[in-house]
Amino acid sequence: MNNVGDMMNDATDIQAEPRADTPAPTTDTLKMTARNVDVFYGAKQAIDNVSIDIGMENVTAFIGPSGCGKSTFLRCLNRMNDTIPIARVTGQIELDEHDIYDPSMDVVQLRARVGMVFQKPNPFPKSIFENVAYGPRIHGLATSKAELDEIVEKSLIRAGLFEEVKDRLNDSGTALSGGQQQRLCIARAIAVDPEVILMDEPCSALDPIATAKIEELINDLRGKYAIVIVTHNMQQAARVSQRTAFFHLGTLVEYGETSDLFTNPSQDRTKDYITGRYG
Ligand SMILES: Nc1ncnc2c1ncn2[C@@H]1O[C@H](COP(=O)(O)OP(=O)(O)O)[C@@H](O)[C@H]1O
Ligand SMILES: [Mg+2]
């Protein structure tokens, strides 16, 4: 696709000279931008000069072999790396043109705006209701019990779980099946009205049917939230995303439209990966 390269040249505010293999901006409304991001764990560099634009309307997939830095980079986007003492992040990351690493940024607020769903479903050891109500309660999003009930119900509906749990909202969230637990975690993220949802291999612990449900859900949520999904499953990336970023050894090798990247990659390393030469 020609205009991807053209848009790259148009990209403003890129401080360092963009390399040939750095990102093409998405064509949709910009939600997040990363520029020249490095991440170190102690002396070891895990992310090397990554710049990427995350759009609002499309689902963005991060793919690449295990250990290439997908999770590390994803965690930069809502400052989850702050919780890892030896991790150090440099470069610039903006959400709606505001630097999320600015000292004035409220990290708790940021993580509500940029929610996260993890590889292993991790509901709180609380009721289904409380799992979803917890965030709205600490963020003061409801002024009455009725309002809180409504937020919980809406979030569960949106996460495609309500019908399955509506008669047992007081049962423990941890008693649900893996797929239901993952949708509960998505409902929990949705409940605080996020703008971006980050998913780190959300289906890797699920069976194919539960996986299909999550993929369907991602399609339903597309456009309502900016969605970034890490997956080591290329078929999944092809099914759920419109933009794909290929990472290798801590660098962003190629970023473009999913259909282009899988059918006509511009970089040899991408081609080798998608044809299964390594992974
Ligand atoms: N908490 C951590 N402490 C030290 N090194 C880490 C930590 N997390 C990840 N790494 C290292 O950073 C690199 C990238 O890891 P990761 O982001 O988990 O890759 P991916 O998600 O693509 O599998 C790997 O070399 C990994 O060992
Ligand atoms: Mg990972």
From TrEMBL:
PROSITE patterns per UniProt: ABC_TRANSPORTER_1 (PS00211), ABC_TRANSPORTER_2 (PS50893)
All copies of domain ABC transporter, residue ranges: 32-274
Keywords: ATP-binding, Nucleotide-binding, Phosphate transport, Transport
Region (Disordered): 1-26
One GO CC term on file: membrane
UniProt xrefs under SUPFAM superfamilies: P-loop containing nucleoside triphosphate hydrolases
InterPro entries: AAA+_ATPase, ABC_transporter-like_ATP-bd, ABC_transporter-like_CS, P-loop_NTPase, PstB-like
GO biological process: phosphate ion transmembrane transport
Example GO molecular function: ATP hydrolysis activity
NCBIfam families in the record: 3a0107s01c2
Protein name: Phosphate ABC transporter ATP-binding protein (PhoT family)
